[in-house]
C-alpha cells in the first residue's frame, strides 16, 4: 500500500512538471523534430549552425584559389595581391576584443549573427564589384568589410553551440563546425578555377569582367550562410519562448588592464602562435603559383595540392584533439608540430620531392598545433582573465598575419619563392625557440603545462578539494 502511494506521488510530481509549449502556448505534446528539448530538433539546429560559417570560409581564400587570374586580370604584383589578406586581418586586430561585447551587450546573439553575416555578404559583393569595375581599391574595401564580419561570425557560431549543446556533446559539435569550415575552404580551392573557366567561356569579354562575375557567383555561399543565420535566429527565438530560456552569451570578459598580469609562459605561447601561423596562411595564399612554377603543375593540380592542408585538417582535428586530451604533454605535442612544419617547409624549399608529401605533413602539423597550443592558455591564466587572454592572442595573431602578408608579397616580388620559403622557415625557427624556452620556463615552475592527462586530472581534483 505504501509503495503504491509512493508511486502515485511520483506520478503526480511528474505530471506537475512544466511541459514545453508549442508556438500558440498550448502544452500538448510536440513531435520530436519540433521540440527544442529533443535531440532531432537540435540536430536540425546543428545543421544550420555548421553552415553558418560555410560562406565566410569559402570566400576567405577566393584570392588564393584564383591567384593567377587575380594577378593577370587586375594587373597586380604579388605585394599588392597580398594586401587582400592584410585588409581582412586589420579590422580583427580590434574586433577580437569587441566582438564578444557587441554580441552580449549591444546586439544580442541573434541580431548580432545576422548583422555579421550581412557584413560578410556585403564585403564579398563589394570585392566582386571591385573586380567588375577594374578598381583594386574597391576590392580592398570589400576585403576590409568582409573581415569585420568574418571573425565575429565565428564567435557567434561558438556561442550558439554552447547555448544548444552541453557537456560531451559540445566537443563533437565544435569538431563538426571546424570540419565544415575546412570543407568550405577545400571546396573553394578546388572549384573556383572551374567556375572562372566556365564564366570565361560564357562571356564575350574576359579579364577583370570574368573575375568579377566569378567572385559574384561565390557570394551566393555568403547569402546561403545569411539565410542560415536568419533560420537560426528564428529557431533560437522559438526555443526561448517554448523553454523559457535566455539568449546565449559568449561569456567573454575583456579587461585590457589584465595584460600587465600575463606570465612569461603566456607571452611565449603568444609568440609561438604568431610565428607559426604567419608561416601557414600567407603561404597558402601564395601557394598556387609556387606549385605551378617550381613543380610544373597544371592550375588544377596546383589548387588541389594547395588545399591538402584544409582537407587533412577537417577529419584530423577532432582525432588529434582527442589524442591530446587523452595523453596530455601539450608542450611536447606543440614541439612535434613545429618541428614537422619546419621539415615540410624545408622540403618545399630545397627539394623537388613530390609536394604532396610536404603538404600532407603540413596539414597534420597544423591540426596538431591547434589542438595542443590553444588549450594551454587556460592552464596558465585564471578563469576571469581567459576572455582577455584569448582576445589578445587573436588580436596579435591578426596583426602578425597582416604585416607578414605584406612582407611576403614584397619578398616574392624582389627575391623569389626560394627566399620566401627561407623566410617562412625562419618564422618557424622563431616558434621553435619559443617552444624550447616555454619547456624550460614551465619546468622551472613545476611543469604544469607538460603534465600527462592523468597527472593533470589528479592536480585539478586536489585543487578542487583545497578550494572546497
Automatic annotation (TrEMBL):
List the GO terms this entry assigns under cellular component, sorted alphabetically. lysosomal membrane
UniProt keyword list: Lysosome, Membrane, Transmembrane, Transmembrane helix, Transport
Which reaction is this enzyme known to catalyze? L-arginyl-L-alpha-amino acid(out) = L-arginyl-L-alpha-amino acid(in); L-alanyl-L-lysine(out) = L-alanyl-L-lysine(in); L-lysyl-glycine(out) = L-lysyl-glycine(in); L-lysyl-L-lysine(out) = L-lysyl-L-lysine(in)
- Provide the function of this protein: Lysosomal dipeptide uniporter that selectively exports lysine, arginine or histidine-containing dipeptides with a net positive charge from the lysosome lumen into the cytosol. Could play a role in a specific type of protein O-glycosylation indirectly regulating macrophages migration and tissue invasion. Also essential for liver homeostasis.
Q: Which organism is it from?
A: Albula goreensis
- Subcellular compartments: Lysosome membrane
* Membrane topology type: Multi-pass membrane protein
PROSITE patterns in alphabetical order: MFS
**What protein am I looking at?**
Lysosomal dipeptide transporter MFSD1
The answer to whether the entry has keyword Cell inner membrane is: no
Family note: Belongs to the major facilitator superfamily.
- Reply yes or no: does the keyword tRNA processing apply: no
* Oligomer status and interactors: Homodimer. Interacts with lysosomal protein GLMP (via lumenal domain); the interaction starts while both proteins are still in the endoplasmic reticulum and is required for stabilization of MFSD1 in lysosomes but has no direct effect on its targeting to lysosomes or transporter activity.
Location of the region described as Disordered in the Swiss-Prot/TrEMBL record: 1-29
Q: Where in the sequence does UniProt note compositional bias of the Basic and acidic residues kind?
A: 1-25
Q: Name one GO molecular function term.
A: transmembrane transporter activity
Show the taxonomic lineage.
Eukaryota, Metazoa, Chordata, Craniata, Vertebrata
Per UniProt, residues of the Major facilitator superfamily (MFS) profile domain are 42-445
InterPro entries linked: MFS (IPR011701), MFS_dom (IPR020846), MFS_trans_sf (IPR036259), MFSD1 (IPR052187)
* Membrane-crossing residue ranges in chain numbering: 39-58, 84-103, 115-138, 215-235, 264-284, 304-324, 331-350, 356-380, 392-412, 418-441
